[in-house]
Amino acid sequence: MRIPASILTLLAGMALVLTGLWVGQNVNLLPAQASANAPVYDELFKVLFSIGTILFVGIVGLIVYSLARFRRRAGETGDGLAIEGNLPLEILWTAIPAVVVLFVGIYSYDIYDRMGGMTPLNDHSMHAMAGSEERTWGGISPVSLDGDPAIAPLPVDVTAMQFAFIFHYPDSDITSGELHVPVGQPVALQMKALDVIHAFWVPQFRLKQDVIPGQPTLLSFTPTRPGQYPIVCAELCGPYHGGMRSSVIVEEPESFAAWVAKNSPAASATTTAVQS
Amino acid sequence: MTISLMPETSSTGSLQPQGWLRYLSFSTDHKVIGLQYMVCGFIFYLIGGALAGAIRTELITPISDFLPRETYNEVLTLHGTVMIFLWIVPVVNGAFGNYLIPFYVGARDMAFPRLNAVAFWLIPPAGILLISSYFFASAAQSGWTAYPPLSTTTPATGQIIWILSVLLLGGSSIFGGINFIATILKLRRPGLNLMQLPMYCWAMLGTSILVVLSTPVLAGTLVLLSFDIIAHTGFFNPAMGGNAVVYQHLFWFYSHPAVYIMVLPAFGLVSEILPVHARKPLFGYTTMVYSILAIVFLGLIVWAHHMFTSGTPPWMRLFFTIATAFIAVPTGIKFFNWLATLWGGKLSLNTAMLFCCGFIVNFVFGGITGVALAQVPFDIHVHDTYFVVGHFHYIVYGGTVFVIFASIYHWYPKVTGRLLNEPLGQLHFWLTFVGFNLCFAPQHWLGLNGMPRRVAEYDPQFTLINQLSSAGALLMAISTLPFLINVVMSAFNGAPAGDNPWNALTPEWLTSSPPPVENWKGEPPLVHEPYGYGVAPGELSLEASSGRDLWSLGQRDQL
Amino acid sequence: MTSTHPETTQHDATEAEHGHSDHRLFGLATFLVADGMTFAGFFAAYLTFRAVNPLPAGHSYELELVLPTINTVLLLVSSFTFHRAGAALRRSNHPLCQRWLLVTALLGFSFLAGQMKEYFSLPFGLTDNLFASTFYAITGFHGLHVTLGGLMILIVWWQSREGGRISVDNQFPLEAAELYWHFVDGIWVILYGLLYLL
Question: Less packed terminus of chain C by CB within 10 Å, N or C?
Answer without folding.
Answer: N
